[in-house]
Hints:
Layout: H1 2-42
Amino acid sequence: MLTRLRALWEASKGETAVEFGLVAALVTLAAVIAFASMGPRLGF
Length: 44
């Protein structure tokens, strides 16, 4: 039982890291698109 709980805990940590990475990538992509579209208006 303890082994199964430990395996589940480790698996959920891995999934959480992947989900965090995907969210971070999407936020970065949104920021790049926003800065690229506003750049000419701001003089960059």
